[in-house]
Specification:
heterodimer, A: 311 residues, mainly alpha, MetI-like fold, 14 helices, 2 strands, 1% strand, globular, B: 313 residues
């Protein structure tokens, strides 16, 4: 797709015969000069961490003395570490957010795709949590979840809760409470992506089906949903991976507590590295999380049939 | 069917009238249906908007209250005072204005450099021919897909090894610490893709013409490509502003000096030290959100476009 214009212009250049060896070297130098600052930082902060991080996973390292090769020791330590397992379990539980957030954002996108007056306001309103920092969002919800706070008031009025106690301080409810914040903050983001997906479906298809007597539901299942499949792949991939890597909301709201009920895999990595200074062990945990995200990425790819539309 | 015999007897006009009546009834029913679904749609839209916006509104009104039951659910503030706002600027070891200045410096540095670097690097990748172009392009693609779990750890080590946290004299230290915060984010792969995409739609003839006129490549980039890619540049700048303004984790891990923290990171620091006065922290939260809301409202159109482009690639 992107190679077509290049081929044409390269052929054109050859026809013009104006690209002597000297010019090519000059162009090459200029090209690399343009890219140099970007590439240097890319290598230092993106490529290097992949390799050095993988290497660190097989070492003992505390920054002060040089890394010491220990083979698979870190991984053996992790397998026996109950805290790591509970972090991993919570991160996997967090994947429950994915179907909920995807279904809600598709429904929301369908809703705000209607040509209603003032729909721009609603789209903007739903997007405000997305552009707000987790530092702020986490603090706001920590206050909202307090005993006697607005969330409890609503839940008790609706009869969903019979005792007024802080949801974040209760091991039975803390993870669900944090999940709700993730959902609340993220749904607007996916809504916008689905909205873009909906607008890329040719309206003639839906109109033609309606004229042929299809019901709204039939149109949705047979035209709209298949048309959204590429977007569904991207969105579910993004949200699965960010669910496994859940960290910021937990960092701000619960710090893994109470009683480890919100301790996530990445929180484990963070505390091993920046609290205990066991960089090798932390890197090993990071590597395991990376492999798990790749596996879930592939599962997603399979489930959405590679995001291909049938049409 | 029995009606058919009745209508047979009726005149041409009455048949027409009958048609019109049926059509009108159908139209009325459709309108009634549309009205009904619209009412339902608006109710759902409003309920969701309340869930999305009430937490912000609640924080805002609580931040204005001088006293009272702080966490109580309410629709209107029970009293009004700016005391909490005054306190956030004076009542802590780290003055709030300092955090605002830090955030502004970090955002200006971060956005300017990120956009410039991506805008420069995207030019050869879209409009020049040189050996290794495809290789670099695919290498960057792979990097985007690769999960980077060790990023935080290795980048922390790199920053320390680069000597960015050394302490020598206050001014140099400040510059180094700001750089420590922005450096890891400066090479934005998404930005490179967005700008490359924008440049690709610029006609090659325009660039060839400028080259034949003897314009240096840097001039072509500045005079031809940048103006034509302006919408994408604006969208990307807004995305980056929001990202830099909101980032807190890296700064909190990185910075030894709390005086250098950006607003989002400092707010968490305040909530730790200010445990007795959550209302002051709420005031801080409100101040932290306002610039983002302004930028978001002003650039909303570009912003949404940029986001769509970012994921469609």
């Amino acid at each position: 797709m992107t190679t077509t214009p290049r081929r044409v212009s390269r052929r054109e250049q050859q026809r013009q015969g104006g690209t002597g060896a000297k010019v090519t070297i000059r162009t090459t130098l200029i090209a690399y000069a343009f890219m140099l600052p970007f590439l240097a930082l890319l290598v230092l902060y993106h490529t290097w961490p992949v390799f050095f991080g993988t290497y660190l996973a097989f070492t003992k390292y505390n920054i002060i003395s040089p890394p010491q090769w220990v083979g698979l020791e870190n991984f053996q330590t992790l397998l026996k570490d109950e805290q790591f397992w509970s972090g991993l379990r919570n991160s996997l539980k967090y994947i429950l957010v994915v179907p909920v957030i995807q279904i809600l954002s598709i429904l929301l996108a369908l809703l705000v795709n209607r040509p209603l007056k003032g729909i721009g306001f609603f789209r903007t309103a739903y997007y405000v949590p997305v552009v707000t920092s987790f530092a702020v969002v986490g603090l706001i919800w920590t206050w909202m979840y307090q005993q006697g706070g607005p969330v409890n008031a609503v839940l008790m009025t609706l009869g969903l809760m019979n005792e007024d106690r802080s949801l974040l301080n209760n091991p039975a409810t803390a993870l669900t409470a944090v999940m709700f914040v993730t959902l609340w903050k993220g749904v607007g983001y996916y809504m916008v992506l689905y909205l873009a997906g909906l607008q890329s479906i040719a309206p003639e298809l839906e109109e033609a089906a309606m004229i042929d007597g299809a019901t709204r539901m039939q149109v949705f299942w047979n035209i709209t949903l298949p048309g959204l499949r590429p977007t569904i792949l991207v969105c579910s991939l993004l949200s699965t991976i960010s669910a496994i890597k859940v960290f910021e909301e937990i960092y701000v709201m619960t710090q893994g507590g109470p009683a480890g009920s919100t301790y996530s895999a990445l929180f484990f990595t963070y505390s091993r590295a920046f609290v205990d200074f066991q960089y090798g062990l932390a890197a090993a945990a990071g590597l395991i999380i990376a492999v798990i995200s790749i596996i879930f990425g592939l599962i997603n790819f399979k489930l959405t049939r590679g995001g291909k539309t049938d049409a | 069917m029995p009606e058919m015999t009745v209508t047979q007897a009726s005149t041409h006009e009455s048949a027409m009238l009958e048609h019109a009546r049926v059509a009108a009834a159908l139209k009325a029913r459709r309108q009634r249906n549309t009205r009904l679904t619209n009412v339902v749609a608006y109710s759902v839209l409003i309920v969701i908007a309340l869930i999305m916006l009430y937490p912000f509104y609640w924080t805002l009104i609580t931040s204005f209250e001088p006293t009272g039951n702080i966490y109580e659910a309410k629709l209107l503030p029970k009293g009004f005072s700016l005391r909490n706002y005054a306190e956030i600027f004076s009542g802590t070891t780290v003055p709030f204005w300092r955090l605002i200045v830090n955030s502004l410096v970090i955002c200006t540095l971060g956005v300017t450099l990120t956009v410039t670097l991506a805008a420069l690097a995207a030019y050869p990748l879209s409009k020049m021919h040189f050996p290794g172009r495809d290789l670099i392009f695919y290498a960057i693609l792979v990097l985007m897909v690769l999960p980077n779990e060790s990023g935080l750890i290795v980048n922390y080590i790199t920053t320390i090894k680069l000597g960015l946290l050394q302490q020598t004299n206050p001014v140099v230290d400040a510059i180094r610490q700001y750089m420590a915060v922005v450096l890891p984010g400066l090479a934005s792969i998404v930005g490179l893709f967005l700008l490359r995409q924008a440049y690709l739609s610029v006609p090659q003839e325009l660039i060839e013409a400028a080259r034949i006129d003897g314009a240096p490549e840097l001039t072509i980039w500045r005079r031809v490509l940048l103006p034509l890619a302006l919408p994408t540049i604006v969208a990307f700048s807004i995305l980056e502003f929001v990202a830099y303004w909101n980032s807190f984790l890296w700064a909190r891990i990185m910075l030894p000096d709390k005086n250098m923290m950006p607003l989002s990171a400092g707010l968490l620091e305040l909530s730790g030290t200010f445990s007795t006065n959550s209302r002051a922290v709420m005031a801080g939260a409100v101040i932290t959100i306002i610039p983002i809301l302004i930028v978001f409202m002003l650039g909303q159109k570009y912003f949404m476009k940029g986001l769509e482009g970012a994921v469609k690639g």
